[in-house]
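Thread: Newbie trying to understand structure tokens

Hi all, I'm a second-year student working on a class project, and my supervisor (Dr. K.) asked me to get a predicted structure for one chain before our next meeting. I've only ever worked with sequences, so writing a 3D structure as a token string is new to me. If someone could post the tokens and maybe explain what I'm looking at, I'd be very grateful. Here's the chain:
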Amino acid sequence: MNNDLIPVGIVGAGPVGMALAARLASFGIPSVLFERDPELRKQGSKACLIQGDVLEVLDKFGCAGTIGAEGVTWTTARTYVRGKEIRAAEYTRRIGYGPFVNISQFRIEQLLLEKIESEPLAEVRWAHEITDAVQDADGVTVTAATPDGPRTYTCRYLVACDGVRSPLRALTGVAWTGYSHQDRFLITDLKVKLPLAKERHFHYDPPFNPGRQLVMHPQPNDIWRIDWQLAPNTDIEAERADGRFDQRVRAVIGDVDYEIDWLSTYRFHQRVVDKFRIGRIFFAGDSAHSLPPYGSRGMNSGIQDADNLAWKLALVMRGKAEDALLDTYHDERYAAAKENLAVTEATIKFMVPPNLLRRTVRKVLLTLSQPFQGARDKVNSGKMAEPHTYVDSPVVESALRHPLLGAFAPDARISAPGAARMRELYGAGFTGLYFARDRETARAFAERALADTRGLAADLIVVLREGELAVPAAGPADDMPAGVTVLRDRDSVLRAAYRATEGTCLVVRPDGHLGALADATRPEQYGDTLARCALATAAAAEDTTAADARIPVGV
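---
Reply by user tm_fold:
Sure, no problem. This is what the structure looks like when written as tokens:
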């Protein structure tokens, strides 16, 4: 890729930056990642859990399968008070990924880097530390400090994925709202064989960390991630020097052999930028929001940022959508960050009470949690991450029209060429999901609806009841227009999952969220519904032949 004009520059080759580059490449958009480190560095488990719905994002460019196979999938989160279990929260095992897969951030980065290195539309420029960024109406010019001296590049758009200490925030002057917590926490990755179920174990006031919290997460290859809340004056290096750290560890795991794979201390933050977009510069991941680790919202929400931004950049850069579509990135992902902050703030106030009253209430609840169910239910050990529902987005219709609008599309088993689950059919562009009364009605709708998609790449899935489906059982059908997949709805499973009746036609966005309910009685207006979901340009509307989501490499 030449240096004349980079379509999308991405600052930071962490999991969010690389996921964005890979997702952009899936739409045919070239990008360059600028990374200040000279190579990928191992930093222990760091983020240690990826949520199943987020793996669906990585599945769109082929990175989810290995993570799901190598990681530790768990469905039970256990909470203990003073050494006794008070609650075991059970999560449903998915037909796809998850619900939760424990694997180190470093391993995810390794797999993403393999993808980037095999992708002609993406590359990493190592040892490039961005020191300046100036934008105008046409692009963003960045200066990078490199081993060979300063280098200058111009990008049409620039995305800051450069972490919690983001230099791009300072360069743009965007407000970094919220606060940083004063308590310190210790993360230790231990290689050890333990007779514990490979599940989440959360301890309040345990004998081995009295008055504070401790969390244990299993990782692949007999690694256990242990997070301690530390006393204010704890000196971990001094503990390692005089043997107290070994005592700390053995108080948790017992008298067994172990190795320290990685160790770090940190303070967590409750922060978000006030604007996810500043002109042609966008913020994603920890540069946009920083959250405590409880509930595993950091990396997971960052990858969802990337997925949200990628399809919008693709449409705007191809001239298919108005620039205002990029503003909806802030609308949607800022709302998601605020929801995450509200959830983690409630957890923090319980875990680390800020005043005497809250400390007293927590002490009483912990004491009563063992004998009384009502008290157990109020012990907050962190609500686990889940996708945000876009309820107030300019490009999502009101949930009053359909209860699932704005939500991440449900999954279900299907039988179709190249797909065993519904979610495997989404992601390349917009997808219509039409629950037809019969095959003839479906064909008539498809012919008229797909005749004009307002220049937007769009496929259509027709869902027929089992008795209505003729040969072939699933997939493309000779009697349907190109781009139509026909599915059998055995036992009305899909209708139940999507809360659909005969004639329901939902629009699934490229990021898998449900964006609109089309009027199946007016198939000629289907393209208008797509256009509202994408803020399509007038030029795109006139281009009824466009069906390819890709753009030339040299854009």
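A couple of things are worth pointing out once you decode it. The longest helix spans residues 324-351. The first strand starts at residue 6 and ends at 11. Feel free to ask follow-ups in this thread.
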